Amino acid sequence: MSNKEFKNNNDSTGKPVRGTYLRRISKDEMGSSVLFEVAWEVCNQVGGIFTVIQSKIPSVIEKWQKERYILLGPYFEKQAEAIFEPIYDTNDPIARTVEEMNALGYKSYYGHWLTAGRPKVVLFDPMVVFPRLAEIKYLFWEHHGISTPPDDCLINQVIAFGHQVQVFFEKFIVNHGAEEKIIAHFHEWMAGTPIPEIRRNNLPVKIVFTTHATLLGRYLAMNDPWFYENLNKYNWAHEAKTFNVETIASIERAAAHGAHVFTTVSEITAQECKVFLGREPEVILPNALNVGRFEALHEFQNLHRQYKERINEFALSHFFQSYSFDLNKTVYFFTSGRYEYKNKGYDLVLEALARLNWKMKQANTNLTVVTFIITRNPFYSMNSDVLRSKAMLDEIKRNCEQLQESIAEKLFYQVTSEKKGFVMPDLNTMLDDTNVLRLRNNLQSWRTKRLPPVVTHNLVDEQNDSIMNFLKSSNMLNNPDDRVKIVYHPDFISTSNPLFHMEYYQFIRGCHLGVFPSYYEPWGYTPMECIASGIPSITSDLAGFGSFAKQSIEDYEKVGIYILRRKNRTFDAAAEDLSNMMFDFLKQNRRQRIMQRNRVEASSEQFDWHKLGKFYDKAYGLAIRRM
Predict the structure, then answer these.
(1) pLDDT in tens, 182-193
(2) Which residue segment(s) compose the domain that 223 sits in?
(3) Claim to verify: residue 586 and residue 617 sit in the same structural domain
């Protein structure tokens, strides 16, 4: 099939279809079909699609059973060694196909993905076909008119992976026979290269293709402040050439037009698809979560308190060596995601925080807001002062515990030995001088006149870091009179992180509000993760999740989903609204925040895959009926 417009996006009447009224695939149709899900992120954690696929596996297996659901992905040894377990001694069609491919010189691996549900996977080593890559790329150009650069590592790996997926389907059809239907669901352009050749060879494979974001949309949104207003004015070929991404843009279009059913994750991204890919998606596949992974039942309030105490410990070590504030009147905000300063809304968050800081000073509030900015950005090492402060605070805590144990033992002996009734002894006489001196020395060494650092790591390029430049230019440098404090953490949070010693989802539970006012966000998992953890969050109407929540959830603000209007609004107006949203949140008392967390947690069930997986069922039903 050539890279031309594919016009199969109509139902039997010739009218465009839309997912809202499509019939789902039936149990009988599932029973006579095999579902393959193909993605670059299968057993390979490089982006958000990994979370999408991994989280929905248990719900898919419940419907399809393990024998009828197989995932296909690339094999990278370092990624696979911890999460892939080979399957031996089997003679099913998958095993026979893998064995046949390996006999032909390919390198494919059949096994279980060691995640919830333990699904079956086949992984293909892209490097094994590199000696033949020039021939494969030539045929890709000859058959489909898509040229590829010679030295782009990712594109080369993607082409090599896609070739093996295509060969796998050819061999599997022979091994499996024609008694059952084959549905193949491809995610993103990295998995989309086999689609044109499968169609060209007329293989009996029903193809569903999902684009989770268009490449041109991501690039243009970063560079055009009026991206959405100008959306219908763009010429995809011109823009692809401008950004030097012609190959990827062409692969996206070929995959979209080659699919029997074309899908995307939100109505917002669907608008991009019409412009940049030339085809309107038939089904919207909203992302969901495996809410059971987050579920804490009646314990979630206790977990919030437990993990907030760990964040309090970090705040003590980070700020209290310079000055102190009341931790009982401290509220924790956070924002996180890929480091895309404008697209992820970091620019707006920082501007709104600067305004919030001013509003809080003017209102003479006794609250303190500590805002964590968590995003992966290149760094050399952790800031040695931050690590030293944390280590010294741990030592001071041990000093206090030793004093406490010493006093407790002496106090217990004295009050039980008193024969003339209870007399409260002088506790100062019970202090061990050595322990007191050690505590005093440690406290003096810990104290500093320096301001608490705004960044926890030594960045590779701090001078050109947009977040740091804003903080410096706005003087948001954790001054003692600032009501809004900043902690910029350019790394993942995990149990191995010496500053927090907890998982990211535990950190979420310990915070009070997540802030994610994205400008370009095809979906947006971070606010959903907040909801599943019982924490309110702010999203935007330009995020796929924000748009979905606005259309499908009544009284969304009451359940802790705040949606900032960014569409057709200036940056200044959006920043002022965001600062007011955060200021209004701070006006809630502790009891009101607890009640809101209850409502947030109660609403999380509607974002589970068991609820939203029905849209995938509609896409597969449509693919079956397009036989």
Answers:
(1) 999 999 999 999
(2) 19-290+612-625
(3) no
Alpha helices in 377-524 (DSSP H): 384-417, 433-446, 466-473, 504-510
Same domain flag for 201 and 336: no
Torsion, Cα 494 74 273 531, to 10 degrees, reads -20
Percent of residues, the chain, with pLDDT higher than 70:
95
Q: What is the pLDDT of residue 14?
A: 39
Residues 557 and 491 in one domain: yes
In a domain, 399, yes or no: no
pLDDT tens, 339-369?
A: 999 999 999 999 999 999 999 999 999 999 9
Helix (H) or strand (E) holding 489: strand 484-489
Does 231 reside within a domain? yes
Residue type, 220: L
**Dist CA 265 CA 228 (whole Å):** 17
How many structural domains is the chain composed of?
Answer: 2
For the whole model, what pTM was predicted? 0.89
| 163 & 179 share domain | yes
Taking Cα atoms as reference points, which of 237, 105, 100 lies closest to residue 160? 105
* Three-class secondary structure of residue 70 per DSSP: strand
CA-wise closest residue to 212 among 335, 88, 53: 53
Domain identity same for 278 and 341: no
Pairing relationship of beta strands 330-336 and 283-284 according to DSSP bridges: unpaired
Distance between CA atoms of residues 26 and 64, nearest Å: 11
